[in-house]
User: Fold this.
Amino acid sequence: MSAREDYVRERITQVARTIQFMDVTGLVPSSREIYGFRTCSKSQRLPGQDHATTWQDPVTKALVMMDEPYGYVDQFFTSRNHWAEANGFCLRRVTWPGTYRPRHGTVCDPVNRAGQGDVVILTVVFSIQIMKLALT
Assistant:
């Protein structure tokens, strides 16, 4: 397979997994900033944040950020949890490689503001587990 064909397959996979994610969770893409302000520096963001997308529950308006860094972020897992606690966020790890380059070692960490959308984030985690079962 050529590099171009591999690239096209990767993009098609990304689109298909995004549609599956939306169908299963009921979330829609959002351009809103989960942090509540425009972030200018990496020190204000989740440590190791990479390939993050923001999603919104259309009913409750709760926001969920899906952070999909490569697996190297595991070395930051403790600092990511400390950051989340210190800044009023909840961070979870799901055993689903997400929508961004799932064949290349990405992990999927849903993040939400503590106390806002807890039901939504639990629904996301539960829905992803169901989706994994359906795809196996």
In short: The chain has three helices and five strands. The first strand starts at residue 28 and ends at 30. The helical segments are 3-25, 77-86, 118-135. The beta strands are 28-30, 53-56, 63-67, 89-91, 109-113.
